[in-house]
């Protein structure tokens, strides 16, 4: 599937505070955060899930 440019008139739903990373890196970070069972990382887990949800749509 070819990559397309987003329409600049449509606001992005990707959170601005998510650093650019590949899907594989994002999944790896999410797996580590979930495996650690560290409640202080819940914000990071939510951001990573949100980052992955955007390409799925």
Could you explain how this protein is built, in words?
- The protein is mostly helical and 57 residues long.
- It has a domain at 23-56.
- Helix content is 51%, strand content 0%.
- The chain is built from 2 helices and no strands.
- α1 (23-36) packs antiparallel against α2 (42-56).
- The longest helix is centred in the C-terminal third of the chain and has 15 residues, at 42-56.
- The protein is globular and about 25 Å long.
- The chain starts with 22 loop residues before the first helix and ends with a helix.
- 4% of the residues are buried.
Q: Which descriptor suits the 3D outline?
A: globular
Q: What's the main sheet like?
A: none
| Total beta strand runs | 0
N- to C-terminal distance: 14 Å
The run of helices and strands is: HH
β-strand amount: under 5%
Poorly predicted segments: none
Could you report the average pLDDT, rounded to the nearest whole number? 75
* Radius of gyration, CA atoms, in whole angstroms: 13 Å
Secondary-structure-based class equals: mainly alpha
- Helicity, as a percent range: 40-55%
Oligomer, anyone?
Answer: single chain
């Amino acid at each position: 599937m070819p990559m397309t440019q987003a329409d600049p008139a449509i606001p992005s739903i990707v959170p601005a505070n998510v650093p650019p990373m590949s899907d594989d890196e994002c999944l790896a970070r999410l797996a580590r955060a979930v495996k650690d069972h560290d409640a202080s990382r819940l914000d990071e887990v939510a951001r990573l899930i949100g980052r992955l949800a955007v390409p799925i749509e």
